[in-house]
Amino acid sequence: MSQVPHSLSRKQLIIAFFSAFGIAVITLILFILPAEYNVDPTGIGKSLGLTALAGEQPANPVSPDPARESAFELVEFTVPAGKGVEYKLAMQQYAKLTYEWVSYGGELYFDLHGEPEGDTSGYFESYAEATTYEMKGSFTTPFTGSHGWYFKNNGANNVTVKLMIKGDYTIIGLK
């Protein structure tokens, strides 16, 4: 016996259309208008932090350094056995960085993070965290401050790190 495909009645189609339209209007009013245009008729956008998204503009537009944009800079340092070190860069808000690092002599725990300029509370924001022999990627800084890596060597031997970076930054170095 063949089955007839299920079809919706005219009444069901009209109900489905207006339901979808209603959900779209609610989404527009509650989420899209506050996030994109800073229009928040209900106040929910402000309480969810969406109105802040509408006004985000680079405070200090970054003008990339053409020399840094085209070639990687190589940095090499050692993470002593059982110890940790930080390697930091000063970067403006919305600056871009491309990086790649490789460890020789063992794997390392790392935390790629940033600390806002002038903050005294100890706040930091982690971007990536793992234990591995290598990592590569890129990111755009969400705020002006120092950004970089904390490397922890849990092994019994010193580990050498070769870090290649390119982007718009000023080297702070090892801390």
UniProtKB/TrEMBL annotation:
The keyword Transmembrane applies. Keywords: Membrane, Transmembrane, Transmembrane helix. The chain crosses the membrane at residues 12-33. This is Transmembrane anchor protein. It comes from Alteromonas oceani.
